[in-house]
Every structure is written in C-alpha cells, then in structure tokens.
From TrEMBL:
One of its GO terms (biological process) is protein catabolic process. Belongs to the peptidase S16 family. The keyword Protease applies. The active site is at residues 234, 279. Residues 111-171 form the PDZ domain. It comes from the Bacteria. Transmembrane segments: none annotated. Its EC number is 3.4.21.53. The keyword Phosphoprotein does not apply. The lineage of its organism: Bacteria, Bacillati, Bacillota, Bacilli, Bacillales. This is endopeptidase La.
Length: 349
C-alpha cells in the first residue's frame, strides 16, 4: 500500500501541473516588444540612411491558466481579459488568427494609401473578392466555407464588394441554392450552398458568415511589408510613418528612437487600440524616446457606461508617469499631427 507521503507528493504534482497548464476562460496580456520597422518595410529605392529608428509595439497574449491568472491578479505588468473581450462570439482559434492577420493586412493597405497620398505618389486600388472572417455554427455555410476563403463570384456574377453580396442575398429566400466561386489556398472552387435563416435574423436568408472586402493596392515605387507573424491593426500609424520616411529624402526620425501605436483609417485618422499601457512599458524597456499615442474621442454612450475611461493618450501618459519614464508621449488624432510634431522637433544632437 503506497505511503501517505507518496500519495501527497503525486497529488501536489497533479495540482501543480493543472495550475500551470490547464486553460481557463480568460487571457493574460503583458508587455511585448518594440520591432524596428526598417527590416520589415521596404520601399523600392527608398531612403535608408536614417540615424534614428521607427518601431511598432506589440503585447503578449496567452490563454490563462490558474497559475498565470493568479499571478496576473497581483502583477503590475499583466492584465486579465475575459474571452469575450478578445474573441468574437462563435469564433474559434483559427478564425481569431485569420481575423487578426486580415486586420494587419488592412492596416498595411491604409498605411500605404495614406503615405502615398501625403507624398504625392501614384497608386491603384483593385478588389480581390469578399474575405470570409467567420462561419457561424449551424449556418448555411457551416462545413462548406471557412475563414480565409475569398468569394469571387455568386451565381456567375462577380462579387467584389460587401454591398453587392448583401443586395444579392436580400432578394433570395430560405431553401434557394446558390453557387459560389471561391478562392481557397490559391485554388478556385465552385460550391453550392442552400440558404438558411440568418441566426441573428431568422426572417432573412443568408450564408451565416461574417466578411469584409479584400482590397489590394499597387504603387510606384513598390512597397513590401514583412509581418506574417504579427496580427491586428494597431501598427497602422507606424507603418504609415515608416513608409513616408523611406519615400522622402529627409530623415523623419531626426536621430531619435520613435515608436507608437494606433490604427490607420483611410481618412488619415488614428484609431484607438487596446493595451496601450502595456506598450508604454515595453517601449520604455526598449529605450524608446518618443511614443505616439492615439488621442481618440470616446462616444458619449461609451463614457456613460464607463465614466472613468479615458483616451489612449491619457492612458499612455498615466502609465508613463507611473513608471517614471523620460520617454515623451505625443498625442495624435491624425497622421498629420504626428508629422507636425516631427517637423517642429529639433534634430537629436
């Protein structure tokens, strides 16, 4: 018969393994790193002799375990996020990854467009179809389509934008069969789908998918961005500044280590992102000197529910003061705000 000490030892081992590896329904975020953009962004024949640098910021995100959850509760550099604050409803791990990478692709698209507009350089936009982000369980497309597929045609008609797909399906009824031409893994396929009620509105027929337009931008000079392993749209502002820096003869860095965060909209506006306080910590550890933060305006309905919530800039400034960094936090509502700050900045001696 095993000794009590042996049984206790095994029970402790089981507890420690469970606490370390058993996942719970939450995520842990922590400071990531600063990634210099020059190795990631290449503008053909672009200016490369800058003395400073521009970097994008990341945060670490991992599924929580009992141990990491408990540690995050007492850590100043980790935060707990519930799953519904990270993933959309009915979104699995693969679909989450596909959505994050697509958001990164969209941020690059907007960054290139805005940078070329500011530099007065030519570009052309083409559509690549409708990009599928998520397939709802028990919807018409469940088991037939998957995240990452592109819808090229519907019943032989080119489908290049979201509205054309929505308008076409609005005239259809439950039980009707449509034929989609899709691109999957660079191969074209024809798939027949019997329309079902939309889970959110059973009075309408649909495919049971979430989607977005997929566009491509062609420029002269050409731009190549390597960011296959980085997801999300938050690097949009910094991509824009780095592309502009290479398009222009002048050194926008002026010898400083610059970083920042914020989405880039097709209007040039800089959008709010999550985890900016953790990115400030990461930037400080990377010896960043100037940090651009979205100075977003929160909607009144959001402020009513969360009266203590502030703009990204205020969050970043508060964390900067808390950790005692000498890094300058710069508020930006648009890319022009960042460019105006740079124009007035004295070169580093």
């Amino acid at each position: 018969m095993p000794k009590k000490s042996t049984i206790s030892f095994f029970l402790i081992c089981i507890f420690l393994v469970s606490a370390t590896f058993y996942p719970v329904d939450a995520y842990i975020t922590k400071p990531g790193g600063a990634y210099p953009l020059k190795p990631l962004v290449t503008v053909q024949d672009g200016d490369q002799d800058d003395e400073g640098s521009m970097s994008l910021m990341t945060i670490g995100l991992a599924k929580a375990t009992p141990f990491t959850y408990a540690w995050a509760k007492v850590s100043d550099e980790q935060k707990i996020l519930q799953s519904n604050h990270v993933r959309n409803p009915d979104e699995d791990d693969e679909e989450y990854t596909v959505r994050q990478l697509h958001l990164m692709s969209q941020s690059q698209f907007n960054a290139i467009q805005i940078a070329f507009e500011k530099a007065g350089k030519p570009y052309e936009i083409t559509t690549k179809g409708i990009f599928i982000l998520n397939v709802l369980p028990n919807g018409a497309a469940d088991g037939l389509l998957k995240a990452g597929d592109r819808i090229m045609q519907i019943d032989g008609i080119k489908s290049s934008d979201q509205q054309s797909l929505i308008d076409y399906l609005n005239d259809k009824n439950v039980g009707e069969i449509i034929t989609l031409k899709i691109k999957r893994d660079e191969k074209l396929e024809l798939i027949e789908i019997e329309l079902k009620p939309i889970p959110s509105d059973e009075s309408r027929a649909g495919l049971g998918i979430s989607f977005s337009e997929d566009k491509e931008i062609t420029t002269s000079p050409t731009v190549k961005i390597k960011s296959e392993e980085i997801g999300g749209p938050s690097a949009g502002l910094m991509f824009t500044l780095e592309i502009l820096n290479q398009l222009m003869d002048e050194d926008l860095t002026k010898g400083y280590s610059m970083a920042g965060t914020g989405t880039m909209k097709d209007t040039g506006e800089v959008g709010r992102i999550g985890g900016i306080d953790l990115k400030v910590i990461a930037a400080d550890k990377a010896d960043v000197e100037i940090f651009f933060a979205p100075d977003d305006v929160l909607p009144e309905e959001v402020l009513k529910k969360n009266p203590s919530l502030g703009s990204n800039y205020l969050e970043a400034k508060e964390m900067a003061e808390k950790i005692g960094t000498k890094m300058k936090i710069v508020p930006v509502k648009t890319v022009d705000d960042a460019l105006e700050f740079i124009e007035e900045l004295e070169p580093k001696k």
